[in-house]
Amino acid sequence: MLDQYATTLTFIALGAIFAYSFYAVLIAGQLSLGQAGFASLAAFSGAYLAPDRADVGDVPALLIAVAIGMSVGALAAVMLGLPTMHLRGVFLAIATLGFAEAVRVVLLNQEWTGGAQGLGVSRILTVGMAWFALALVAYWFWRMGRSRYGRALEAIREDELAARAMGIDVGRHRLAAFVTAGAVAGLYGVLYAYYVRLIAPDDFDFVAAVEGLVTAVVGGSTMFLGPLLGSGFQTIVPEVQRAVGVEAGWIRPFLASLLLLVVILFLPGGLASLLPRRTRMPSDAGDAADDRTGRSHPAAGDTVVALAGLGKEYGGVHAVRGVDLEIRAGEVVGLIGPNGAGKTTLVNMISGLVPPSSGTATVLGAEIGRTPVHRIAAAGVSRTFQHSKLFNRLSALENVLVGAHLVSRPTFLRRLLWLPSARRDEQAALRQAARCLERVGLADLAASRAEALSYGDQRRLEIARALASDPSLLILDEPAAGMNHVEAGRLSELITSLARDGLTILFIEHNVGMVLQTCTRVVVLNFGEVIASGAPGEIAADPAVIEAYLGSAEDDADGGSLAAGTAADPTAGSPDGVPPPAAVNVDPAAAGTLETPDTTRRNAP
Amino acid sequence: MQQLLNGIFIGSIYALFAIGFTLVFGILDRLNLAHPAVFAASAFVGIELVERGGLSLWAALPLVFVVGAVLGLLIERLAFRPLKGRADAHFAGLISSIALAGMLIALLQWRYGPDTRRFPPGSFPDTRFEVFGAQVTLVQVVILAVSLALMVGLTYMVTRTRLGRGMRAVAENPTAARVLGVNVDRVTAVTFAISSALGAVAGVLFAINVNTAQLGMGAAIELKGLAVIIVGGMGSLPGALIGGLLLGLAEVFAVQYIGSSWVDVIAFGLLFVILLLRPQGLLGARKVREV
Prior knowledge:
The complex is a heterodimer.
Chain A: H1 2-26, H2 35-49, H3 53-56, H4 58-84, H5 89-108, E1 119-120, H6 127-145, H7 148-158, H8 160-165, H9 170-196, E2 198-199, H10 206-219, H11 226-243, H12 251-266, E3 303-314, E4 317-328, E5 332-336, H13 343-350, E6 358-363, E7 366-367, H14 373-379, E8 381-383, H15 396-403, H16 412-416, H17 420-439, H18 455-467, E9 473-477, H19 485-500, E10 504-508, H20 512-518, E11 521-526, E12 529-534, H21 536-541, H22 543-550, H23 560-564
Parallel strand pairs in A: 5-10, 5-11, 8-9, 9-10
Antiparallel strand pairs in A: 1-2, 3-4, 3-6, 6-7, 11-12
Chain B: H1 2-28, H2 35-51, H3 57-80, H4 89-112, E1 128-131, E2 134-137, H5 138-160, H6 162-172, H7 174-179, H8 184-210, H9 217-232, H10 237-257, H11 263-277
Antiparallel strand pairs in B: 1-2
Helix pairs in contact in B: 1-5, 1-8, 1-9, 1-10, 2-3, 2-4, 2-8, 2-9, 3-4, 3-8, 5-6, 5-8, 6-8, 9-10, 9-11, 10-11
């Protein structure tokens, strides 16, 4: 019974292993077609270099060939990956495809590969061995899924920039994923060689690469069972057609393609999306007292941020110019200013996303401009973004878990071995994440996908994610944008309570009432320059600030109007915008915003 | 000299094919892998029109253009529009267009069988010219003229007409374009139609050039098309023209001086070097990423 299907079953296993080599990079959002090249190099070098089965026996010969093949595949991936890892999307796909084609042509022109005739290899692989190898590969990716490393790869796929800001070394992770793909493709190449008896460079051409990609995507590239399901589907469909007597040459490829189209159009996550996805919640077991993150924070009053003459120029436009600013531990600094004043640019420089064009800046001991973003995050800076940059297809809890990347320990290798310490570490990270969710009031939405949350909840989830790394400096870029005044009031309370815990906070906000109420110090930026800096009371009365906001100082003798928070549009610069005196002395907490928050892009793709 | 001219003739076909590719990518940010299937299908359709319809070679060209446009509309409707708004639209679009290409090739196999097909004897005029001591047939001249005319027409359309302005607006920002009253769905459909029409004409010209049509001819040119659009710069129309001519010339000279078996290494070596040194391509613009 099994014998009858042995060939089919072996090809399902082989196809699945090849598909896993695509899955290995798709999970990190990389589209590579170079796996055919890795498999080809591995198959030929493994088959050529491994000792003969007559000398060492069947299984040792295969194992040696596998070891050679996987090393060759991984090595080729390193050599291709180092220069190409900065490429994205289709560019990476085409570069790797070019590599695979070059490998094919080179091997075709070599003597030792037999050229177009191919290289004869003895058949050692049995259906059992193939499925054993597949089980090992699937196990690897299964254990990777819920490790810190696996989460980091998913975060990179969803939003590379946000992943960087969470302290993930994107370059290294992408290369690691690529090398894994190389090794798995190498494994496939050797196993294939030891099954089909005769390998030719053309077995690993563009069509083969596309087939591997299709298998991985059809199965589902976000779940570890996907490649297996995909391979089963791709291999069985033609078999079923043959069994039911569909013989005409064209009907079979037509139906197979049609099915592929149906699957891709109607099952967005591939076949694996039919399987239920378990959502993880922390179990209560375990000692919460052990959950200290091991971060040390600067003592109150120490310098956290020191900017000297910091400037940023975009093609002649000075977005930020000559900013000198010092922030000390324990301060809550509000950064306000009209649209286009350079607030976000300044914050992007402080968090390392944008290199300054002049001046120097030190943040928690890291020098800005030379230090990569993830190192600055590691120094203790955590931030949210003006336009939410969540990991959309991950759950709220997983988003926060990624935020805890820096304060959790790597668990993948230990998870492979089922070490209990890995489970303890994962549980500790889960508890840390759950606490952060609770703090922003999202505990009951932990299992929801980030993209399904309401706008206000997404903003709060970003704050929870930023808190998860137990930062020393928290940067919030317009956290209250799009919130109503009740929500904004609650946010204000949250910020105050975080400051009470000793966190240093820098936040940009247009809700001036909220800023004046929450901050210990307010910095006002206009046209890229600091025009005022001081306690909230001083700022509210500062004529320069009022001029920046209302356009003209002469018509507005009443400094209190700023504290009241008016509906005047600061960019209009019209004196008519001066509020009636009745608005003076309104409770700042109930104040509206000076500007309409920019929420137009929140639904943009 | 003969080699130079041959390189230009074949290069202009590559360019025409690649321009269709790069048009969809540049404007819609999607890679349409059904494009090579259209290329192959149109070659068969062209031969059928000449053989059964009794049309002359030149009368068949506009008809093939129309057939290509219809195929383009179908591709957009079946493989790309249903994916709109999906997070994985990039990957999914690749796969769905591969699937559609598979169906198209299967249909060709049903209609025409697996064998190579040729134009009926006597379809080609015998006129020949001598240019700087090299032999040039009228057919080759027409290939070059048709390719260039279509490319010039396309460039004019994209840069000067209302439709072209809509395309460029969609390329810049689809949401903003929609808000400003551009019918994004229509622009998308028309872009696919034009792209496929150009691919179709390239297919029939290729078939005329070598007087064969095979089911696998699309797959063979697919990689070259990808190389051309990278070398020229993703989304750049003049880049695709230059890239196509470069590749055509490189191939012809590689065959002569290095040997035919190494031709593809030249193409992909060139591709690789460009990607490393100038990832935006020869004429592509580097996109600045916003935080």
